[in-house]
Amino acid sequence: MKQFKGRPVVAGSCTANALVSHGGFNTLASFQNALQFGDKTAKCGDQNNADLYEKPMVGTALCLPQTIGSTTGGMVLYCAKAMNRNPACMLFSEHIDSLACAGAVLAAVWTDEPMVTVDCLGQEFLDYVKDGMKITVEPDGTVTVD
To answer: How many Cβ atoms sit within 10 Å of the Cβ of residue 103?
Structure first.
């Protein structure tokens, strides 16, 4: 077990299994099948992300360095949350970008419960965590990896 301390962007607590991307996360490409074609498990549709491609993202602790891609990224995250096709939490090793931050905050304001989001967890976090590890997030940004 190891603990990491990040900055809570959308505070909350949750426990979920890790799903890890070591490359940038293209929000639109990743969630497109879930939002347009009804994939309720939200299998990652970004064929350029070998770590996540075709893996279900719903209910996971999505661990990533940063998001990349379209200016629609924030709205995509909000829509995924509104449609219950979102990860349980998003954990960024780097600073969150403004678009992903906007989507996480909008989802927290406009839906019933927040999609917990923590950034600045550091490269050591992303190097340590592996798919399937149990992750617990506390409201103060403490992330415990079992």
So the answer is: 28
